[in-house]
Specification:
By secondary structure, the chain is α/β, with parallel strands linked by helices. Helix content is 41%, strand content 20%. The chain has seven helices and six strands; from the N terminus they run E-H-H-E-H-H-E-H-E-H-E-H-E. The chain is globular and about 40 Å long. The mean pLDDT is 97.
Length: 171
Amino acid sequence: MKVLIVVDMQHDFVDGALGTKEAVAIVPHVLERVKNFDGYKIFTQDTHGANYLETEEGKNLPVSHCIKGTMGWQILPELLAHANEPPLEKDGFGSPELGKKLQELDKKEKIESIELLGLCTDICVMTQALIAKAFMPNTPIFVNEACVAGVTPESHERALQAMEICHIKRC
């Protein structure tokens, strides 16, 4: 089985509080990949509460975003329609539940490969990729270069390079 991890394709990262033109530009590519992917699709969803600015993340990134229940928190509906299960909500950069989910799926049917796409390359995509590598160290892991965008083009490229060092290949 092949697994596609769709990271945080939420309004606040695309066209909301933390949106960028690069994020908007990948949406058609992400939609095409999600629609045509022959395998299991897992979505992650950045999820914060009203106290976000008081959290460690909020102190370092003081922009309220992905507050549960708001429009910005919502995953783009045209993408979510293709999910195999409800999204994995995460209250920080990484989702330990993602690693456990991958191991659970692998026990049922061997995972041949894992592909990641979504936002932001340099924060949550990279974190999910490293979690996947930690939980599935012998499974090939890829990041779909046409379907990711970072905070800046420079930090996006640095993240892709860092992931390559950790044997997460570009595709």
